[in-house]
Amino acid sequence: MTTNWQAQYARRLEWMTTSVIREILKVAQSPDTISMAGGWPDAGVFPIDQLDAVAHHVLTEAPQDSLQYGLTDGFPPLRVQLAEMMCEAGIPASMDNIAISSGSQQALDLVGRLFLDEGDTVLVESPTFLGALQSFMAYGPRLVGVPVDDEGLCVDEFERLVQETKPKFAYLLPTFHNPAGVTMSLERRRRVVEIADHYGVPIVEDDPYGQLRYEGEPLPSLAALDAERFPENAVAGAYVKGNVIYLGSFSKTLAPGLRVSWAVCPGDLAQQFVMAKQGADLHTSALGQAMASEFIRRGWLPAQVQRIRDTYRVRRDAMLEAIAEHFPEGVRHTHPAGGLFLWVVLPEGMDAVALLKDAAARKVAFVPGGPFYVDGGGANTLRLSFACMPPETIREGIRRLAEVIKVHMA
After folding, report:
1. pLDDT one-digit tens code per residue, 256-285
2. Judging by beta carbons within 10 Å of its beta carbon (0-12, 13-18, 19+), is residue 162 exposed, middle or buried?
3. Which end of the chain, N or C, is surrounded by fewer C-beta atoms within 10 Å?
4. Which residues of 196-221 are buried (b: 16+ CB within 10 A; e: fewer)?
């Protein structure tokens, strides 16, 4: 008798969904479609020659470090380098606070694995990163959305929901938010860490875009603001006490194919990450870690980040200028100071999914905003990415999209 595979599935499969964005990207693959849907970095800014040089170096000089099994917590020289980078960013981390992950997506899954039981509550921004929702939902939690405005998380509502729902943790993207493109103000950042400390609520701070700033001055991370509240951290020169898990990544600054990201964990939490990771993939790519470490050792990372900023700034400006020229009154949008995304709010009653169908006929694509919400909202919102197209293509894409919007508003 042939196995009935569907009858064998675990119940948690009912909680899991496929990525709506990746389904949209399949539709947008037509070569003559201008796709502003994807959240990928532009392959044109990958440092190909430099990565080739460091790959040759690590494979020639220390092949055992890059081809043999490695430590679950990560390549030690890289962890030391990351700790130094975090200290420069205001987070007093030691290498013992650093746990390497195979992309931030794995780090989010490990957070769920470590902290969530079925029925637990997690606070997320509304809207929020769809990949985080996918990771957390595999563990059966109740996801509760907290509104976001132009200054980021609405902290009064956040505090109310913390009191009301007693969450296991809150997942936040305070800097260059995906999908909303906004950045949490300094005042609100301070409030968030105060609330987290007062109520004992862990914060998972996801910061994949933090280095991609195109205007304004950098703001301290939630982790940095949290760490400075505890004198023990400065004395120890490490993140020995705190409420924030900080997630960083090389996917937007080097290349996502390396699959090298990291978590900065207070206290001995990094060892719990390592324990959870051992049963997942044993360790992150040794080759990818060795390449990232050598890239940093050679001092190439700052110039690479600046090159990306210069490229994406021009494209962001082209999108903002085209929107100002072509979008009709009544359509609102964010002004991202960094990152990859711009958020559009259509007039009430409009449906971004219906808009996408007509936009696809005009050979332009975007991501409807509804899937980024946990409460069924966002039907009249959409996300645009400016990372992967030259300015002239962005301008034409916005012109086409504006035509479709005007028809739907008529």
Report:
1. 999 999 999 999 999 999 999 999 999 999
2. buried
3. N
4. bbeeebbbbbbbbbbbbbbeeeebbb
Q: What pTM did the predictor assign? A: 0.95
Q: Residue 143 and residue 133: Cα distance in Å, rounded?
A: 8
Q: Under DSSP, is residue 371 helix (H, G, I), strand (E, B) or coil? A: helix
Residues 192 and 158: beta-carbon distance below 8 Å: yes
Give the model confidence (pLDDT) of 175-186 as tens digits.
999 999 999 999
CA distance 201 to 196: 5
361 residue type, one letter: A
Residue 116 lies in a domain: yes
Can you tell me the distance from the alpha carbon of 263 to that of 31, in angstroms, rounded to the nearest whole number?
38
- Tell me, yes or no, whether 96 and 191 share the same domain: yes
Q: Facing residues of 244 across strands?
A: 203
Consecutive H or E run containing 303: helix 301-326
CA atoms within a 13 Å half-sphere pointing along the CA-CB vector of 15 = 16
Gap between the Cα atoms of 181 and 125, Å rounded: 13
pLDDT digits (tens, 9 = 90+) for 119-135: 999 999 999 999 999 99
Domain region containing 325: 11-47+303-409
Q: How far is Cα 381 from Cα 407, in angstroms, rounded to an integer?
A: 17
- Whether 55 maps to a domain, the answer reads no
For residues 404 and 277, state if they share a domain: no
Contact predicate 382/21, CB 8 Å: no
Q: Is 251 helix (H, G, I), strand (E, B) or coil?
A: coil
